[in-house]
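pinning this so it doesn't scroll away 📌
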Amino acid sequence: MNTIKYKILGLCICLFTISNSSIAQKKKAVTPAATSYTVEGIITGLADGTAVKLVPGATHSSELPVAETTLKDGKFAFTGKLNEPRFFYVVFGKSKGFIPVLVENSKIKITADGELSKREDERIIFKNEVVTGSKSNDYFVKETAFKAELNKDYEDYHKGTEELGKLYSSARVAGNKKVMDSIANSPEWKAFEAKEKAFFAKVEKTTADVIAKHKATWWGPFFMITQYSYFTPDQKPIYEQFSEAAKKSYYGQVVDKDLNPKSLIGTSIANFNLKDKDGKAYNAKDIVAGKKYILVDFWASWCGPCRKEIPNLKTAYAEYGAKGFEILSISIDKDEKAWQKALGQENMQWHNLLDDDKVSKSFNVKTIPATYLVDSKGVIIGDNLRGADLEAKLKELLKS
C-alpha cells in the first residue's frame, strides 16, 4: 500500500515539475525580442567634438549616413530599428577612420583606442577594437576568420619578389617588352606566378565555401556582397543557388540589383563634367561632339576583367576611330594614385576621366566592366558590349 502511495506521490511530483517546467518554457518563449538597437561607443585618444557617423556598408555603393553625432567625453551613441541585421561602418572625422559592425536589434557596445596618424592625411588608426552585444557580429567575425590566413599567405608568396615586381612594373610602364619577357621567363618569376595562381585558387574556394554554406538565409547574399569587391555576370550562378527567402532578404535584393541592373537602352544620358589625370575638367558633350557613336566605359585599376578588356578597346578604337567612333573611359577608383598608375601602364589613347560617384550612379553602374554605346543624339543604344560583340556592333553601324 505504501509502495502504491509513494508511486502516486512520485508521479504527482513529476507532473508538478513537468508542469512548472512547461510554464517556465512558455514564459521564456513569449519573452519579447528587442525591437530596436543601441550602439554605444567608448573611444580613447580622439578629441571631443569629433564627428561620428553611422554609414551603411556592404552595398557596393557610396552611402549617406543614417545617423550622425559627435564624441563627448570619448562617448557616442546611436539608436534605431532594423527588420534584419545590417552591416555598418562607424565613421570618425571626415572619413578619416572607421570601425565595422553588424548591427541587430540589441544593445551593442564598441570600445577602441584611437590615434591620429602623423601622415599628412591624418588618418585615424584604431587599436584594441572590441564589439560586444551583437550575436550577428560575433558570427560574422567567426565565419570570416579565414581572411587572416589568406592575408598571411599573400605576404608569404610576395616575400623575396619585391624587386623583381618593381622591375617588371617599370618595364611595363616603359613599354619595354624585351625586359618584360626576360623577367617573365625567369625561374623566379615562374615560381612566383605558380604561387600566385595557387593563392587565388584558395581565395576562390574559401569564398565559394562560405557563401554556399549560407545559401538558405540572408547570410548567403550578405557574404557574397562582402567577399566580392565588384560583380561580373560570372557571379550570377552563385546568386541563383540562394533560397527564395535569401533572395527576398535585404541583402538578397541588394545583390540582385547589383547583378541585374535595369536596362537603360533607349534612354538619354545627361551631360556631365569630370576631371582627367591632370585635374582638367571636361564636358561630356564637348568630348563627343561630331562623333557618330560613343562607348562610355566604366572601369577601375583594381578590376582584372576591366583591364583584360582594354586591348579589345584599343583594337576597336584603331579600326573605327576615324569613322566616327569615340571612347570615354570613366574610372570608379577611390585611390587616385592607383588610377594614375594604371593609366601609365595601359596607355589608352582616348579621354580618361575620374568618376565623382554621381556619374556612375546616373548610369546605374553596379558591376564593372560596364559599357554603354551612345549615339550622336545622346541615346543609349547598347550596353555591355565587349570584345567580339562590340566589334560586330560597330561593323554593323559603321559599315559605310
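📌 and the second one:
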Amino acid sequence: MKEKVDPKSYGLPPRTVLIRMGPEKFSLVISRKSRIIMKDALIILKKVEKINEKVPNASVVLETSAPVCSKSIKFLNEKGIDVVLI
C-alpha cells in the first residue's frame, strides 16, 4: 500500500518526496547523485520530526540512490531512521 503523500500537509517543503507505506510508516525518498553528508542528515532528521508532530510514533525510512557517509548512517540509525539504498 504505497501512496504518495502531499508533503505540505506535514509542514515539509513541496519538493520533498514522501510515501505512506502504512498507517504509521513513511518513506522519505531522496533521488540524487551527490553524497548524503552529515548536514543532509540533520535536515532529514528535522523532516522526520515534523512528520512525528502530525503522526506520533510514526516510523520513517530513508530510501536513497545516493551514497551515504558512514557518520550519517550511524547518526540516522541512532535516531531510529533506517537507511535503505535503492
